[in-house]
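# nightly structure sweep
# worker-07 picked up a monomer target from the shared queue
# config: single-sequence mode, recycle default, output format = structure tokens
# input follows
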Amino acid sequence: MSAFPDGERGVLLDRDGTMIRDVGYLSRLDQVEVLPGVPESIQLLCGRGLKVAVITNQSAVGRGLLTEDELRRIHRDLEGRLAASGARVDGFYYCPHHPTEGVGTYRVACDCRKPNVGLAERAAAELKLDLGRSYVVGDQATDMDLAMRIGARGIFIQGRRPQTADRGPQTEDRGAMGGAGQRSTVVVRDLLEAANWIVQDFTGHK
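# output follows
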């Protein structure tokens, strides 16, 4: 899936556990904690001309824990915090649904809940991205499944790996991350390590 074969390369970032502390069902501004190195990571990606978009499942909306307006307010605040550090996010894309726990119209099997490709396709359409030459960074198997489905390179944030922590990014079979496919998945400690890997790969494949 290329979406725009002549489009730009982009980086699709998960939100919770990748950019900000995962607190479960985040519903308030005071719960937002930007993880160390995140602004620098996004600065690094933007500085190489990569588009950066946030792709996130937010079933807290569907479960009635916050409204879409409140979620958008949280994203505007996060965007402002990053911008104050010189980091630009080109778009926030979220899925508010849940197929079994959603309330009312939010209880639906949608095409946007990761690992489905709806959010990635919307980001590609709005930002003119070539998904097949892009990257997906996240800390869940669903993020790597999404990468496989759109033909992007998956970069899995696994935290500090006891046996490989000082050896830099590792590659693993994507099946171990919950998906299937021939491209390997890069395994890193955090977003900064992911950004450095992407920049090297991007520079080598211009």
